[in-house]
Each structure stands twice: as structure tokens, then as C-alpha cells.
Amino acid sequence: MRTVNVDLGERSYPIYIGSGLLSHIGQYFKDHGISLNSPLMIVTDDHVAPHYLTLLEKLLLEAGYDTVSKVVKAGETSKSLSVLEEVMTTAIEGKLDRNSTVIALGGGVVGDLAGFAAATYMRGIKFVQIPTTILAHDSSVGGKVAVNHPLAKNMIGAFHQPEMVLYDLDTLQTLPPRDVASGLSEMVKHGLIRDGDFARWCREHASELLALDPEALEYGLALGCSIKADVVSRDERENDLRAILNLGHTIGHAIEAVAGYGEYMHGEAIAIGMAGSARLAVRLGRDASIYDETVSMLQSLRLPVTMSSHLSTDDIMDAMKHDKKFREGHMLFIIPDSIGSVSIVKDIPEQLVRETIDQLREGGETHV
Ligand SMILES: NC(=O)c1ccc[n+]([C@@H]2O[C@H](COP(=O)([O-])OP(=O)(O)OC[C@H]3O[C@@H](n4cnc5c(N)ncnc54)[C@H](O)[C@@H]3O)[C@@H](O)[C@H]2O)c1
Ligand SMILES: [Zn+2]
To answer: Which reaction equations make up its catalytic activity (predicted)?
Structure first.
């Protein structure tokens, strides 16, 4: 078992990572002061619920907790205001009070939705994350919680840090292979922005990671979480440094929005976005090996580096302009300087961005 501490002053919290943690949940909750006198609400989705919801409810009941559960439809479409209202209905009907805690059991979708519910129910109650995807090693660190607006992703949200994160690696064993690769995309991203050796480790251990080898997972998730935790602890509210975590996301979010949420998994879209950022880096004069190495890392993890040919450059450019990272009319990109280090670059000429998107299309040029 490894513990990563997210250091945020009085909002600091631990991430416990290991196998078999769920069976000790009662003790973890008591150690973290989760009240026995107020009901808890578990939010999960209909892919995760059949595997783990009954078990979690039973373990919490045995520990003396009353729970209500809300199961939402799996997928990005549940990160919406209408599903949020349903979650709030369950909370009100379940008589959650100011001392209650919301538990997110699932991936990033459930984490963002349940976290936003916790941030806003009665102006904010406690929140615990039980991530069940690899991608959630990213989404469970840093307290960004949100739902989507039909025009743009994550537009309605808050910063709300959890009390703790309980990452039981056993729950990952039921993840579909595409979700495994999608989650590994954010893991290698953490290496690409801050730790080139870690990015190379991800490539060298790609087959163990894809096969969900517990030792490789524990190491990779702990290192990924600690890189993110370090960045977040230096800039919790994304005034500057935290933006580097958005490597690949300006293009990636636009691809998700244009393709329609659900065609590309989040990690797949940002893998294409990271290939795009590496192309931009080379076009801006960085070493050509940055693109080749980035692509080889992504491909070793079975991630896409080009997008479907039916996606139009105009639509992607428009979607990028709705993105929060499009500040005051300037395109803001996270650009690799080398493998393991990035810069925030403003004012990249629009024409260069257009050409890069054109090249990202399937069948496009393989070299920059
Ligand atoms: N808040 C943040 O800082 C942050 C960071 C990165 C991503 N995100 C968000 O995270 C979301 C993507 O997260 P995700 O990839 O975890 O998506 P997800 O929550 O939709 O999970 C992916 C799929 O796997 C299923 N699933 C989850 N755990 C499972 C398990 N153990 N066994 C079987 N099936 C399982 C889910 O039902 C879903 O179908 C996006 O909405 C993205 O915006 C947020
Ligand atoms: Zn992401």
C-alpha cells in the first residue's frame, strides 16, 4: 500500500493506493472523522454498480453507517445539470445533512458529478472518492469537480477537495481494455509534463500496465498521483502552473465535443491532443525527437495519435474557442520543451494551429 499526500494546508488529504483497501473502509472512514450520525450518499454508475455497489453498501452498514445510493447511466452524458438534479433529489429524500458525506464510486464521470453535488449540496458537504478507473488517478486529485454544458465541457463546476481517496486496485480488474488504455493516457501525460523518466517507464512497462499487473499499477498510479498532487499543491486554483496539466487538452476537449461526447474516450482524445502539441512544439522550433518519442509512448499504450477523417478543422477550431483555456481571445497551448518538461505558450498563430489539426487527421502526414 502506498499513500500520496495532497498538500493543501487545511484542505490536505491522503490518497491510499493498494489492493484490498475496500474491506477496511469502516476504519478509514472513522479515522477521517466521517460521522456515524448522518446518512451517506453513494453515487455510482450502472456499469460499476453491479460489481461493487452491494459490497460497498454492506461494508458501510457493517461499520454502522446509513447509506442511500444513486446509480446514474454510465458515460459522459451523466455529467449534466439534469442528472445533477436527480442526484440532489436522492440527497434530499435521503435526508443528507450538513455532516453527511458524498461517496463517488466510479471513474472520472462519477467523481466529477458526485464531487460537484458535494460542493453545492447545502453549500458544500464532505466528499470521498473511491476511484475505479485508471483515469481517475487524475480526476481524483486536485478537487476540480464539474458537469458539462451542451456547448462546452466542464463549464459548470467548483473546486472541492475530498476528505480522502481510497484507491482499491482490485476494482480495476473489471475495467474494459479501452478504458485501461484511456486511463494510461493521463498517466503518461504526468510523465510528459514533469518527469521524462516516468514517461519512459510507462513505455517500458506498457504491457504490464495494459495487463493490470498490480505492482506496475501501484507504482504508476502513485507516481502519477504524486506528480499531479505536487503541481496542484503549488497552484490549487489554476492561476498559472496548474495549467500544465492540460497538456493535450485544448485539442482533446475540442475533439470530444465535435465528435460528440462518447465517440472518443477522454484519454483517447487527449492522446491525439498530446500528439498535436508535440507537432506544434516541433513547428515552433523544438527538437523533432519530441514528436517521435511522444508518439511511440502513446502507441505503446495502444492509444490513438490521429483522429477520424470526418472531423472538420473548422469545427475543432470553433470548439477550441469555447474552451476555458481560450483566454481573452488568445490560443493558449501547453507545449513540450523536451520529454518531461513543458511551457505554457500564448499567442500561437491560428494558421499554425489549423495546419496542425489538418495533419492530425487519419492518413495525414506521419512526420511533422
Ligand atoms: N476533475 C478532474 O480533474 C478531471 C481530470 C481528468 C478527467 N476528468 C473527467 O473524467 C472523466 C473521464 O473519466 P473516466 O475515463 O474514468 O470515465 P468514466 O467514469 O465514464 O469511466 C469509464 C467507463 O468505465 C466504466 N467503469 C468504471 N469503473 C469500472 C470498473 N472498475 N469496472 C468496469 N467498468 C468500469 C464506467 O461505467 C464507464 O463506462 C471525464 O468526464 C473527464 O472530464 C476530470
Ligand atoms: Zn484529462
So the answer is: 7-phospho-2-dehydro-3-deoxy-D-arabino-heptonate = 3-dehydroquinate + phosphate
Q: Is 195 a pocket residue for ligand 1 (Cβ < 6 Å)?
A: no
Going by C-alpha positions, the residue among 77, 76, 78, 44 that lies closest to residue 60 is 44
pLDDT digits (tens, 9 = 90+) for 303-348: 999 999 999 999 999 988 877 666 556 678 999 999 999 999 988 8
Write the CATH number of the domain with boundaries 177-359. Answer: 1.20.1090.10
Strand ranges across the sheet with 164-168: 2-6, 13-18, 164-168, 126-131, 101-106, 40-45, 67-72
Question: Which pLDDT score is estimated for 329?
Answer: 62
pLDDT digits (tens, 9 = 90+) for 233-267: 998 888 888 999 999 999 999 999 899 867 899 99
Domain 2-174 fold is Rossmann fold (3.40.50)
Catalytic residue among 137, 189, 236, 238: 238
With a cut of 80, say whether residue 112 has pLDDT above it. yes
The response to whether residue 246 sits with its C-beta less than 6 Å from ligand 1 reads no
Pocket perturbation via mutation, ligand 1, pick of 6, 22, 48, 153 by most ligand atoms within 8 A of CB? 48
Residue whose CA is closest, atom 15 of ligand 1? 135
362 in catalytic set: no
Distance 67 CA to ligand 1 centre (A): 23
Residue 303 sits at φ, ψ, to 5 deg, of: -105, 150
Distance CA 161, CA 183 (A): 21
Looking at the chain, the domain(s) classified CATH 3.40.50.1970 span 2-174
